[in-house]
Amino acid sequence: MRRAGSLLVCILLVATTVIAQVPQIINYQGRVAVGGTNFNGTGLFRFAMVDAGTNLSQQATAEATVTNGFIVSYAVTAAGSGYTNTPDVTIVDRWGSGATAHCVMGGGNVLNVIADTPGS
Hints:
This protein is mainly β. It has strands at 7-10, 33-34, 37-38, 60-67, 70-78, 89-92, 99-106, 109-118.
């Protein structure tokens, strides 16, 4: 049975940045533990507001080529950007199962996707 290629998604959680005014007072209710025991008394604390910057990362995608019910290759359709580690590969297919693959990286982008097992 031959059908259109499965969609392959190299997952990268893309964080969004919200720009807001810095509050004058930060209310927090919680506990401080020292050595696993709740601290009771006056404490001196120092806080810093840190700007995480703008996240320019984009998720990579690829499309699988299926021949006789098996994934034989992948074509990268979007290389993504901003990867600092090789992302896990998730293969989404509502008819088949068992396929695995890994990414080949370069310069923070996905250059190629290699089929490890073709699935069925």
